[in-house]
Write a structure and sequence with these properties.
Rossmann fold; 9 strands
Length: 297
Amino acid sequence: MIPRFNECKPALPERNERQAVHMAVLDDKVAIVTGSARGIGRATAELLSEHGAKVLINDLDGDVAEQTASEIKGDTLVFGGDLTAPGVPDELVQKVMDEWGRVDILVNNAGYTLDAPIHKMSDEWFQKMLDIHSIVPFRMCRAVAPHMREPAKQEKEEGREVFRKIVNVTSISGTMGNAGQANYSSGKAAVTGLTKTLAKEWGQFKINVNAVAFGYIETRLTASKDEANVAEIAGEKVQLGIPDQLRGMASMLIPLGRPGTPEEAASAIFLLCSPWANFIHGQILNVTGGQFSGMYT
């Protein structure tokens, strides 16, 4: 007698057990999220921690990073410092290795903007955007290289597949350009080349390398450009935000009718950090609410 379909189905665990399984999808994984004291970085750190990962919280302002870490449930570690300074990315990774002995996930999220039309832009402002958006992700990837590649070689000899993840944060400013952001757009465009090249080099080690290209997400960088929205970076006060006129155009430019939230942005990063993305590799995932859909690849 052929059993009925219902007789073949395995019994599902109780709801609480299913929740526990879901919450532990990143159990025992160690994640580094740069620029994770605020905004998208913080939302990402919270989501990775919620799903079981141990997370390194990083920010230029060590006190803010400490506060964020204290507010996140789960195992966290703090590293405050300027990642654009030579050697600092290596120090960050070493701190993680000394504490937890492994790195499974790297999210290169740290960044900010210095906007000006190109005919008024200084060499210094252009270089700063290249430093934080291109050089820092490169140095972070180089710093984690031995701690991701060497275990993978051993696992390959043993016939095991263990996936590790690198997610770089870019922007549609880098894929399409944006007036007033020649420096930021150039830095973010470089992230695409880094991502695709690293995917080709490290795929053999089961290290998934992808990027997310965000559109308009509500953060300090897209808040109203007023006197209160100022950050101090390397001793210099930097005006953040965009003009209210541009902010008001969001509902017309975005088919979903509004900007994204940091939590929605973090969800895309989480997807690429999860086991469900083990065969997603070398991709730039556009997270825009449909903004400029079809106008980029």
